[in-house]
Design brief:
Length: 263
Amino acid sequence: MSAPPARRRHPAATLVVLLLALVVTGGLYTVLAPSRAEATTTAAPADVEAGRALFEANCSTCHGLQGQGSPSAPTLVGVGAASVDFQVGTGRMPLRADSVQAPEAPNAYTDEETAAMAAYVASLAPGPPVPPDSITTPVDDPERLAEGNELFRTNCAMCHNVVGAGGALTRGKYAPSLEGTTGTYIYEAMVTGPQSMPVFSDTNITPEQKQSIISYVEHAQTQPSPGGLSLGSIGPVAEGLFTWVAALVALIACAVWLGRRAS
């Protein structure tokens, strides 16, 4: 007696399962994702409107009228006020030239205009706010400085150098120097991850630890170089290059002197 034939799956069964999964996923996202109406900002409505006018006049060409992004610029929905305050406040935006990295430049807007554009972008969707001064002001506490030193060496020094002097990255990019950078901009960079920088959320580095990092960076910039000439504080590569150049110059000078003596 032969075994009953196995049930064969319909050729369209896989496609139907995938379509159902997509429908369920889309439905859950529609229900659970924050909507534009839920995106709130503490700024006054007049500031949001002023920011919207500035955004449409100066930013929408690349980022879209609703901040949705375009092939030439990323979306701003959900980046928060902190990202706008950092990018516009440091002059990186509006982008002055098409390059691998937006360089720091003088701010093209006033502080009030920057705050208005940040308020408008914050109204699009929830995102990191501009941090208060209470967590961006450096503290002069030896324990906090030691904590900031350890955190900076662990998470930041491989790109920014151990004293925040900056350094080269791949494909023409670079980690900028932190000299003269305010605590607010350092904090905003950590929570928004501009360009090649990763995002350090509060679960990775707490706000108090971020303040310790800010304190260490400012403290490191005010310390004298115990070895004399700092050579830009960009590490052993620069120091080694300086030594080799000085040695080669000395050898060439010695060779020239010996040649003249022999003649």
